[in-house]
Amino acid sequence: MTAKELAKLLNLSEAAISMALNNKPGVSTATRQRVLAAAREHGYDFSKLKDSSEPKAEEGTISLLIYRKHGAVVSDTPFFSQLTEGIEQGCRKAHYRLYINYLYGDSNIKKQLTQLPYCNGILLLATEMKLEDFEPFHSLGVPLVVLDTWYENLGYDSILINNFQGAYQAASYLIGKTKSQAGYLRSSYSIGNFNERADGFYKAIRENGMSASRSPVLCLSPSMEGAYKDMLELLENGEKPCRSYFADNDLIAAGAMKALKEKGYRIPEDVALIGFDDMPLCTYVEPALTTVHVPKQYMGQMAVTRLLQIIKGSDAYPVKIEIGTNIVKRKSV
Question: Residue 91 pLDDT more than 80?
Fold first, then answer.
């Protein structure tokens, strides 16, 4: 059977068939598995591929568990989709099947865990989790790596952004550009990541010889529409914005920017803004948003690498891996 015949059989394009057979990005894990199964069943000649050996059989299964507690932070945003893409790439490279499941914190977590299919290891997206939320996972007996959060007494490997570094870089950049003390647009929903960003922000303030208590703090919802409404209400109630603000994420920064512009403030001439995450919206807003870049796909790939090390028994000591950040300079500062 030829690639063209496979394409007709599976109702896919020849390009998709080629990407699946050659283990290239661009098709989903499910599609790749479907193509390979059909190719083997119908006697496809794998010697036609650049790598003449038949694709390696899958070595196991990894589950990505996405924990949603209130949904205010973990939602269908590009941040989490790009993180998932990195995980998918890491699994394909290692020849592991990936299953993605949601866990809902307002329901019985232990019951949800018993309903999951067997896997060799778990990647747990724990952005919205508190330390006590991990209790149901302790008795699973399955290798587990935590993504996007960390606690001192957690006992699991953690892969996360260096939130402290990113916020420190952002506040230092604002102070250097505006020659004034920066304010803080803080998320009204508290999670570990935002708390670490607060620590980095205040360290930069202090190291520049300023008092942390003199940095205005405005609490806004961590969504673009929510932050816009909250900021607009503050401004209409007499809040006078300071010269610059660091925001806990890009959505907060973009929402605040919209409200400020609506009230006649110029960005960055009157108020400079910097976000965190480097989401695609940063280039769509006007002016384009300066932000802290997070290598999200790399973070996902690193998580898979670490989980496979644990599965294969290379060591048994929990580690914390922080992915570095850098400033992306645009027009809002």
Answer: yes
Domain assignment of residue 275, yes or no? yes
Q: Say whether pLDDT at 196 is over 90.
A: yes
CB 95 within 8 A of CB 56: yes
Q: Give a yes or no: residue 298 inside a domain.
A: no
Residue 208 lies in a domain: yes
Characterize the bridge pairing of strands 291-293 and 326-328: antiparallel
Instruction: Count up the domains in the chain and report the number.
Output: 2
Q: Is residue 63 helix, strand or coil?
A: strand
Instruction: State the CATH number of the domain containing residue 228.
Output: 3.40.50.2300
Q: How far is CA 284 from CA 279, 287, 288, in A?
A: 10, 8, 6
Which among 277, 293, 309 is the end of a domain? 293
The CATH number covering residue 15 comes to 1.10.260
Say if CB 100 and CB 300 are below 8 A apart: no
pTM of the model: 0.77
Q: Read off the tokens for 17.
A: 């068939």
**What is the per-residue pLDDT for 198?**
97
Question: Rounded to an integer, what distance in angstroms lies between the CA atom of residue 202 and that of residue 280?
Answer: 27
pLDDT digits (tens, 9 = 90+) for 112-170: 998 888 889 999 999 889 999 999 998 888 999 999 999 888 889 999 999 999 999 99
Contacts of 197 (CB under 8 A, 6+ apart): 163, 164, 166, 167, 248, 276
Residue 191 lies in a domain: yes
pLDDT band at 76 (very low <50, low <70, confident <90, very high): low
In three-state secondary structure terms, 326 is strand
- Dihedral sign from CA coordinates of 202, 208, 162, 70: positive
Structural domain harbouring 23: 3-48
Cα atoms in the Cβ-side hemisphere of radius 13 Å centred on 261: 15
